[in-house]
Amino acid sequence: MHISQEDLARSLVSHWLVGHARRLFGPAILALTLLAGGSSAFAFNTIVIDPGHGKHDLGASDSLVYEKHINLDVSRRLERALRSMGFRTVMTRSDDSFVPLDTRAAIANRYRNAVFVSIHFNSSYKNKVSGIETYYRSSQSKLFADLVQRELIRNIGAVDRGVKTANFVVIKKTNHPSILVEGGFVSNEKERSAMTDPRYRQAVADSIARGIIAFHQMARR
Fold it and tell me: Out of 2.40.30.20, 2.60.40.10, 3.90.550.10, 3.40.630.40, which CATH number does the structure's domain 44-220 have?
C-alpha cells in the first residue's frame, strides 16, 4: 500500500498528540510545583533562547519553508512556556533580524545564573535523512544536552540522531551551560511538512522546556 508523504507527516504530528497531556503536561505541572516551592534555591533562573539565522540569513530552506521562520516561532513558543513556569527569558532576536554569532554569545554572557539554548532545524543534500540531534561543547553542558534530547525523542518520536559535540560559535563562546538543538530536517519532505503544523512546533518547544526543567531539577540537587 502506498503511503503519501503528507500522510506520513500527519502521522508524525499525531504521534505527539496521542498522550500529550499524560506525557507532557503531567510532569511539567509537577515541575512547576517544585519550582514554585523553592525559587530561592534556583541553580539558574534565566534561559537565553537563540533563534538561529534571521533576515538575509535564511538558514535551511526548501519549498518556501525557511528555517529562520521556524526557529523564531519555536523560540517564541519556548519563551512563553518557560515564562509561565516562572523563569526569566532572554531572546537573542525577537523578530526577523540578523544578529552576528559573536553577538549572540555576548548577549548570553551578560546574564548570571543562566543557560543557553540555540534553536535550529537541519538540512542535508540527502533528502531521506531525518531526525533530531542536540549539540554541546563543554562538559558542563553534556547533561543539559542529554536531557533535552531525551525529551524531544520521547515526545515527538523522531529518529534519534543523538547528542554530539561541536565547535559552533554560539555554544563555544557562551560561558554558561549551552546547547544547540536541530529539531528536524527541512530537506526531508515528511519533517518539513510537519514543521508547517503549529502543533508540531509547539511539541518541539514543549519538549525543550521539559528538558530544561529536568536540568534545573538536577542542578538543584
Answer: 3.40.630.40
- Collapsing DSSP to helix, strand or coil, 50 comes out as strand
Region of residue 131 (phi > 0: left; psi between -120 and 50: alpha; otherwise: beta) = left
* Res. 36: pLDDT tops 50: no
Residue 175 sits at the vertex; the CA angle it makes with 88 and 56, to the nearest 5 degrees, is 75
The Cα–Cα gap between 179 and 4 comes to: 34
Cβ neighbors of 98 (< 8 A, separation 6 or more) are: 54, 55, 56, 57
* Under 8 Å between Cβ of 132 and 161: yes
Cell numbers found for residue 85: 513556569
| pTM given for the model | 0.83
